[in-house]
Amino acid sequence: MTAAPGFDPDTLRAEIAELLGERPEDVRDEDDLRDLGLDSMRVMHLVETWRARGARVEFADLTDLGTAPTLLAWSAYLNRA
User: Fold this and answer.
1) What is the tally of structural domains in the chain?
2) CATH number assigned to the domain comprising residue 52
3) Which range marks the domain in which residue 61 is found?
4) CA 48 → CA 19, 23, 26, 41, 54, distances in Å?
5) CA dist 7 to 26, 38, Å?
6) pLDDT tens readout for residues 22-76
């Protein structure tokens, strides 16, 4: 599956890293983003950013995936939505 423009893992990694004040290489594919400091306010910021780029996403979509919030889980979700 080809990632939708702007929702590929590397783009999401750069956005999340910037939001957390981390280097992109420090955000690994399977890291639980909560352990890196991603809180609900930051998730809300990402939701609004991604909506502006055309994603049909809600806060609950990212927090209720049935798995830990990881870069790969979110990228897969955003590319299906």
Assistant:
1) 1
2) 1.10.1200.10
3) 9-80
4) 13, 22, 24, 11, 10
5) 18, 18
6) 999 999 999 999 999 999 999 999 999 999 998 889 999 888 877 789 999 999 9
Instruction: Please check whether residue 2 lies inside any domain of the structure.
Output: no
- CA distance between the termini of the chain: 13
Neighbours of 79 (CB within 10 A): 15
> Residues 1-31, buried b or exposed e (16+ Cβ, 10 A)?
eeebeebebebbbebbbebbeeeeeebeeeb
Distance separating alpha carbons of residues 62 and 74, to the nearest angstrom? 7
Alpha carbon distance 39, 20 (integer Å): 10
